[in-house]
Amino acid sequence: MTDTAGVRVESTGGTTHAGTGNLYNNNYIFMGPRPDDSGGHGRRRRVAEDQAIWRRRVLVAPHNMGQARRLLADTGTVILDGAPGTGRTCTAHVLLREHRQDTGVLHELQPEENELPLHDPDLVGSGDQLLLDLSRADNAQWERACRDLPALRKTVHDRHAHLVVVMPHRLPLDSDLQHYRVVLTAPDALSVLRRHLRVHGLPPSDYMQPHGAVTEFLQGRPMREIAAFADLIRRAREADPDKNFTHWCDKAVTARGDLRRKAANKAAGLRQAPQRALLVTAAMLHGAHADLIYRAVQILLEITGSPPEQLPLLEHKDLAERFHEIGAESDARGRVRFSDLDDDQAVRTHFWDHVPGLRPHLDTWTLQLVNLSDRHMTEEVRSDLVARLAAQYLRTGRNLDLVFLAENWAASPATRLSRQAAVQALACGLNDAGQGARFRQLIYHWCAERRPRGDFTHVLIEVCAEVIAATHPDQALIRLHHLARRERSSARALQALDELVASSRPLRRLLLHRLARSEPTLPDLAIFLQISDPEPLTQPGATTPLVHETGVRLSLTACWHAVLGTLPRTQWHPHAERWLHHVAREEQNSGEVLLDVLVGAAQRCQGRSGSVFAALYASARDAERSADGQPQRSAATTELLLSKIRAAQGLGPTISATASARGSRP
Predict the structure, then answer these.
(1) Compositionally biased, Polar residues: which spans (predicted)?
(2) Which partner for 344 in 146, 286, 365, 637 could form a disulfide, CB atoms 3.0-4.6 Å apart?
(3) Cα(594)–Cα(552) distance, rounded to whole angstroms?
C-alpha cells in the first residue's frame, strides 16, 4: 500500500514495516488528501472496507464459527467467548461484515467515561453492525456492561441491527444471556500460517514444505503471533528473493529470538559517538537512502553536542565500512537495512530503554527530519520515522507524554509537515490495540477541558474526523462538538462536525439530542443552525424520515425554541428561510412537520410568542420573494404557516397542506 499524498500510519499496534512491499495489518489509517476523495467519510469508508477485506481473506474459521453465524442471523446478537488468541475479534468483524446492509454502519462500542452508556438508544442506528469488544475488561467493567446489555439488545432488535460482543474469558455471564454465548476454539495453527502466506503471495510449492522449527514455533501460539510470524517470512522473502523457503523460515525464527541481547552486545562494541549515531539513525530510518542517513547522522551529532571528527575528510571511513560495522548494508538502490530481520526494532528498543538521556534529543531530531527538505525524505520515510518514535512511547506506556509531544510539534510556528506528524503520532496511539481506549480518553480531555497550544486544535480536529470516526463515530462526534463550541477564530471544527453528521442519520440524531438535552450556549445554537439542514431531515431512510421520529422532532423543537428566544432575527432568518423554501418544494407531508416544529418552538416562547410568530410570518413572506420558481407553492407555504400560527393562538383550526395548495392555485 502506498500513499504519496498524505501521512501513512501502518502497524501501529505491532512491528513497524520498513521494507518494500505491503504491510497488512488490522490497525492502519491513511490521512491527507487524495485525488479520489470527495470527503472525509469517503476515506473512512475506504479504510474500513480495506480492513474488512483483509480480515475476511486471512481468517481461518475457528471452531463453532458456524454456530455463531446462525445465532447472529436468528437473533441479531451473539456473545463470543474463548481463550485469548483464538481469533475472537477478527471473527467478530467478519460476522458483522456478513450482515452489512444498505443502511447502517459498522462501528465499535466502547463504554468509557464521558461517553454514551450502552443503554442509550442513540448508540444504535437502523441496520447498524455493532462490535462491543470487552475482551480486556475487568470484573467491574464487565458487570456494568452486563447490566446494560438487555437494553442494548432491545434497541438492536427494534432497529434491525446486529451486535457481536467479545466477552472477557473466564468471567461469568448472566443466565438470561447464556443463550447468546458461543465458545470459539482456535483453528489449526499451521492452516492459519499457510492462509496468511498464501494471501501474502507465496506459492503453495513453498509454504506446503514441512519445516521443523516452524512447526515447533506454532505450538500454542495465538493468532496474532502467527500472523506476525507469517509477515516475517514475507519480509525475509522480499529481502532475499533468490533464497528458498527454508532460508526465509530460518530468518523469521532467528528474528523471534533474543534480539535485545544481540542489540546490547552490538551497542557495547561501538563506543564512538559517530558509530552509535549511525546505529540509532539506521534503526530509526531503516530502509531509507544512504544519503539521507548520512545527513541525519550529522544532525543527531549536532543535537546531542557530539564534537565533529578531527580527521581529514579522506581519512574518514566510507559509508560501506561504517554500515558493515553496525551490521547493515545498502542495496543497489541505496537503501540501508540491517542484515537480520528486526535488528532495527531491537536497536531502537535498546537505546530507548538504556540511554534515557537520548529520548528528548530523538524528539527534536525527528521533528527536524520531518521538516527536512531532501528528495530522499519521502512521505513514506516520514511516516515510518514518526511511527517508530511513537511506538517507543506506546511500548513503555508513556501515553500522556506522546500527546504532549504531538502538541509541541503542532505548537506555533508549526509547518504543514509538523502538523501531519502530530496527527500521525496521535493516530499511532489511537490505533494501538492495547492503548487505543486510553488515547481516546486523552483526546477527550484535550477537546473538552484544555486549551490546546498553537495549531494543536487543528490536529485534534483531523484526528477526531479521520481516525476516531473510522471506528468510533459517536465518540468522534462528542469530541468535535466540544471543539466546535469552543472555537473562536475559525469554523474548522464546526465544518468537520457538519461533515460527520452528514455521513450518518444516527449521528445527526445523536447530535440533535445532545444539543437539546442541555441548556444550549450561543456556540451550541450556531452549531444547531449549521447542522439543521432540512434536506437530510426529510429524506426517507430505511423506515421514515428523521423529522417524523418523535425524539428528533422534540429535539428540533427544543433547539428552535432556544434559537427564537435567544438570537436576533437577523441571525436565524436565513436558516428559517431555508426551511420554508424546502417546505415549498416538498411533495410529501414532511414539509408540514417542519412547519409544526417552527410553530411549536415559537409557541414555547412564553410572554413573547406573539412577536416571535410575527417574525416567523415575516420570514415566510421574505421567503416567497426569494424562492426560485413556483411562486404559488411559496404562497401556499406562507398560508399554511399562518394557519398553524392562528391555531396555536386559539384563533381557528389549521387548514391542511392539500387545501392550502389548492387554494393558492391560479
Answers:
(1) 12-22
(2) 286
(3) 11
Lowest pLDDT segment from 257-266, 434-443, 522-531: 257-266
Cell numbers for 343, please give them.
Answer: 535488528
Q: Are 323 and 329 in contact (CB under 8 A)?
A: yes
pTM: 0.82
**Of 346, 299, 302, nearest in space to 327 by CA:** 346
Dihedral sign of CA atoms 350, 356, 360, 365 in order: negative
CA distances from 442 to 266, 330, 376, 494 (A): 38, 41, 34, 21
State phi, psi for 336 to the nearest 5 degrees.
-100, 130
| pLDDT, tens only, 324-366 | 999 999 999 999 999 888 999 999 999 999 999 999 999 999 9
Q: Between these two residues, 322 and 17, which has the higher pLDDT value? A: 322
pLDDT grade for 424, boundaries at 50, 70 and 90: very high
Average pLDDT across the chain, whole number: 86
Each residue's pLDDT tens digit, 507-557: 899 999 999 988 889 999 999 999 999 999 998 765 688 999 999 999 999
Site of grid cell 436468528: 74
Report the pLDDT averaged over residues 209-228: 87
Alpha carbons 463 and 492: distance in angstroms, whole number: 13
Backbone region of residue 533 per phi and psi (left: phi > 0; alpha: psi in -120 to 50; beta: other values): beta
Going by C-alpha positions, the residue among 617, 620, 546, 616 that lies closest to residue 580 is 620
274 vs 122, more confident = 274
All residues at 6 or more sequence positions from 220 whose CB lies less than 8 Å from its CB, including other chains: none
Question: DSSP code of 185?
Answer: B
d(CA 380, CA 387): 11
Mapped onto helix, strand or coil, the DSSP state of residue 8 is: strand
**What does the block give as the cell for 12?**
501501529
Grid coordinates representing 53 are: 477485506
Give how far the C-alpha of residue 230 lies from the chain's centroid of Cα atoms, to the nearest Å: 26
Which of 18, 5, 16, 28 lies closest to 430, judged by CA?
A: 28
Q: Where are the alpha helices (DSSP H) in 503-589?
A: 505-517, 522-531, 534-538, 550-566, 569-585
* 363 membership: H or E segment, kind and range: helix 359-370
List of residues 6+ apart from 559 with CB closer than 8 A: 512, 515, 516, 520, 525, 528, 532, 601
